[in-house]
Design brief:
This protein has 13 helices and two strands. It is mainly α and about 400 residues long. It has two domains: about 290 residues, no CATH class; about 80 residues, no CATH class. Helix 1 packs parallel to helix 8, helix 4 crosses helix 6 and helix 6 packs antiparallel against helix 7. The two termini are about 45 Å apart. The structure holds heme C (HEC). Heme C binds next to helix 12.
Length: about 400
Amino acid sequence: MEPYLWEWGSAILRWLHIIAGMAWIGASFFFMHLDALLKRRPDLPEGVLGSSWQVHGGGFYEMRKWTVAPPALPPELVWHKWQAYWTWISGALLLAWIYYAQAELYLIDPAVLDIAPPLAAAIGVSGLVLGWLVYDALCKSRLKDNDAALLALLFLFVVGLSAVFAHVFSGRAAMLHTGAVLGTVMTGNVFFVIIPNQRIIVADLKAGRAPDPALGKAGKQRSTHNNYITLPVVFMMIANHYPLAWSRPWVIPLMVALVTIAGALVRVFYNLHHAGRGSPWWAWGAAGAAMAAAIALSIVAAPGPNGEPAQRAAPQRPVPAEVADIMLTRCSMCHMPQPVWAGIAAAPKGVLLDTDAAIARQAEAIRLHAVLTRSMPPNNLTGMTDDERRVLAAWLSSP
Ligand code: HEC
């Protein structure tokens, strides 16, 4: 029963997390775009910054933005906050479900640091809390009016934190925790700054007081930060499927840096483009260069145990007994139709490694997960030796 619980719990939480995240990011992209499209028109009432006409779903919409607020508040006001809160709540549950409850499989890599699951989980949670506290303190420091300096410091802080995670956790957990710190910063911005400030503004308006413009300004600053953080976070969240992005501890902070630069640059393009400030194609070019560097980095970092270059495996290569033996002793207890590894109910990701034919079919996947990177066996639970990886490498590089 238990394995089904773990698998379905993870599937359902991930489903919820992705949907909430889509709603949140979708709404936030929509409002960034809308802000940039607003046009002043002579027929607009006083207090309206601009409006935008849009067509969607069989009707026409006229959106107006009032700054700071309309003279009288409408009785019904839609707040956009639950998408953000649900994204974080489901993400935190998913993190605990996969990485903390199944720490041996996903969180702890004894080759990096052999620590007890509760300690590892405590380090992960502290990282999230610390990340928010440091970021929030930076935003309230003397640098608060200097967005470029703030973003640069935040960038260095996150890259540094990912280096720490990389020396404590498995590669995939280090990448994921870095993304989770950024996701926590984004949600913290909504929960602790943007929404509370908006509440004060609403209360001021109701009481007939003029709201303090600094409140709106701080909210806008945090929401701009969120906009630049969004794309890198999504990459870090999906990176656990791409072991080339975290094949060695020293690769992780560099990868985080490159992906963050690339993602933020793509937002630079859209923000300027939508605001009618030209089409800064250089931003796409630079983002592409950063991703090319990320690919190059993964090639440099993953030469295989003998340093041999990656070569493509022929489709149906014969499987020597030595290779089949390694698969049987190190992999197939999980990767067979009815796995014998406690907690695993079905072959993970449908990958079977129990017969010669199945092994031959997975040659490329074996190269990626057991030779170029060491993502399999997970955290080397079954104790695969370097010699065995060399045998696999030799098999895969033979014509
Ligand atoms: C302790 C159980 C276990 C052992 C032993 C194990 N794996 Fe896995 N394997 C998993 C799990 C769990 C996943 C799913 C990981 C995920 O969800 O990203 C997986 C996924 C995979 C995948 C698919 C990866 C993807 O994302 O598409 C491949 C390929 C793979 N393993 C190969 C191997 C090889 C080769 C070995 C032996 C060297 C091995 N595994 C040993 C548990 C195991």
